[in-house]
Amino acid sequence: MKFARHAYVALAELTWAAVLFLFIAHLALSYGLLRLAGETGLTGDVFTYIYYYGVTATTVGYGDLSPGGMPGRMLATFFVIPGAIAIFTAVLGKLLTGISGVWRKRMQGAGDYSARTGHMLVLGWQEGMTRQLMTMLASERTDAEPLPVLLARSLEENPMSETIDFVRSERLADPEALERGGIMGARGVIVRGENDDETLAAALVAATLNPAAHVVAHFEFQRTADIAARQASKIETITSLSPELLVRAARDPGSSQVAKLLLSAGTADTAFSMDMPEGLAPLSYGKALIGLRARCNATLVGIGRNGKVDLNCPDDAAIGFGDTIYYISDHRLDAGSIDWNAMEGGGR
User: Which InterPro entries did the record assign (predicted)?
Assistant: First the structure.
């Protein structure tokens, strides 16, 4: 009785097990009936019959094989052809439904990107700002870099399906959701929640799950940003720059345009960073400044070291492996393609 109930449910829901059972049963029964009808041309060889059954089920109908007698033709007309086509259609329908279901789940944020590496992970969604942010990330992404992943709780489906992947979560600080977003392999994390409390929690959890990732968090209040920096020194905090820009633009006309140029990847003269390669002999700041200008048409502006940035350094300041340099250029440079030793020697 229990087996019969399971069989009824499987057939009613048309599970893969039920489809496989119907296929094997119909294939075998069709073979037996045609053999009894004397259709030896079709049933004399098993592989020949499988070929005939396949072209019949897919409605290809090459015409090279067909029943020769009237009983065989009647069987093909009323049993073999309708059953084979029905089973093939059921298989095709289930495949399409399954593929569509997987795609819909990904669109609705149920995808799993835990195996992804080298991507950017963005936590939080604010329609205008986050859309612009994701567009900028997409414009800077190389062909070899995976799509960025957005983790948000206020969206029902992926808002930018052509350029990003999407994970939906009820909490930005949910470790399971962050793992689905690929936090362990992310090279950078950008956090901006609906308020500072949400941003702080998400940034701290992200930094804990992947200490190697560079976490950047946007806060409305400087005090909260200071708390985040004290709790995890590797978190780079950003607060609203509007008051500072207003004052600077008033005292030094054009300052806001300079800031916009330096921070926008869509324009020339953008500020970039570069980690100095391993095995590099100590290089003076002055020679690096001259060398980058002469060789790469780039302007060196500062050094990042031990979590601190120093701009407009003295010429004799040493730069080496482990340091980050900041420069202005029309495009991002590749540290491995630059002859740093020739700069130290004064070559061009």
Answer: 2pore_dom_K_chnl, K_chnl_dom, NAD(P)-bd_dom_sf, RCK_N, Trk_Ktr_HKT_K-transport
